[in-house]
Amino acid sequence: MNIHEYQAKQLLKEYGAPVSDGRIVTRAEEAKTAAGGMDGPIWVVKAQIHAGGRGKGKFKEASAGDKGGVRITKSVGEAADEAEKMLGRTLVTHQTGPAGKEVNRVYIEDGSDIDRELYLALLVDRETSRVSFIVSTEGGMDIEKVAAETPEKILTFSVDPASGIQPFHGRRVAFALGLEGKAVKQCVKLIGQLYQLFTEKDCSLLEINPLIVNKAGDVHCLDAKMNFDSNALYRHPEIMALRDESEEDAKELQASKFDLNYIALDGEIGCMVNGAGLAMATMDIIKLYGSEPANFLDVGGGATKDKVTEAFKIITSDPHVKGILVNIFGGIMRCDVIAEGVVAAVKEVGLKVPLVVRLEGTNVELGKEIIAKSGLNVLSGDDLGDAAEKIVKAVRG
């Protein structure tokens, strides 16, 4: 689960990390009051969307200007004016795709007198099953670009969970970033705060980019991005309360309510599969036969008729879907349950695109019989290759 920058900074503040004073604005008429509550003389106005690259992004609407989603202003009035220009408009960045995201929140915060920009992140290293730090002197840039062009400027290390975070970890970060004087001590303290936040809140990513040293020589968190392990949210109702459903794909949101593993893609063939591995193989074979999958959808091993029906509804709600491939291997999941769900869903929502069903495993004959007797215009696939070839041919003609 992702949260907004202003929410991440509130969490950082709760753990004692140094962040700027800021106000969140959701309505244009609130902007002037929000900006007036801060000292200035610089006010930074930031669009709040779940995507990076906001500063270099562009608004679709001409009236929003071409300054991007992060703007530096020098008066309360100017800050309020820039906030009003952003609200309700669509910001396109390299992470949003061409559709962009609508800006429903704007964050106004005090400006900082920047001397150096640095990079600092914590994430879960799947190779070592430990929390790892990524540190670089090249702050304010995409870390992927730094890794590709100047990998020697990146330091990565893991923290042994047996010992936990120690002062020497902070000193290692400070020396890698070239910090001096009081900034070293501040960095050691900050590393401990970030590690505590990361582990206590079950984060999967905590990125400070940039981490700055200001003209006074103090370390400061200028921007923040946080992701959380969705499987651990049941024990963090305070994090769940930060969820912004307007930032999520409507189909993915609906799928999560029925415990379906769904990810929207850009293709034309909708997929309904049981098992993540089989779902990946199904997507691959669709590409092999010359088309593109419109989604990843794993209904799981214990799906019910209602769950399958809902999965089918989600697939058909995508206007880009020109055909559907149902690929089920009945181990824990029974083929007759899938067949009943498909039939019920088609009868409820209608079938306006070609549908190919490939069933194999437990109660496969019963499943095929249910579909055959349904009177639906459904093609049957003898195996995965045959099913993929048929649906691609039906879609592409």
TrEMBL record:
Enzyme class: ligase
Residues where substrate binds: N274, G331, I332, M333
Binding site for Mg(2+): N209, D223
Residues reported to bind ATP: K46, G53, R54, G55, E109, S112, E117
Cofactor note: Binds 1 Mg(2+) ion per subunit.
PROSITE patterns: ATP_GRASP
GO biological process, one term: tricarboxylic acid cycle
Cofactor(s) it depends on: Mg(2+)
Pathway terms, separated by semicolons: Carbohydrate metabolism; tricarboxylic acid cycle; succinate from succinyl-CoA (ligase route): step 1/1; One-carbon metabolism; formaldehyde assimilation via serine pathway
Enzyme Commission number, as recorded: 6.2.1.5
NCBIfam families (alphabetical): PRK00696.1, sucCoAbeta
Family assignment from sequence similarity: Belongs to the succinate/malate CoA ligase beta subunit family.
Protein name: Succinate--CoA ligase [ADP-forming] subunit beta
Originating species: Pikeienuella piscinae
Source taxonomy: Bacteria, Pseudomonadati, Pseudomonadota, Alphaproteobacteria, Rhodobacterales
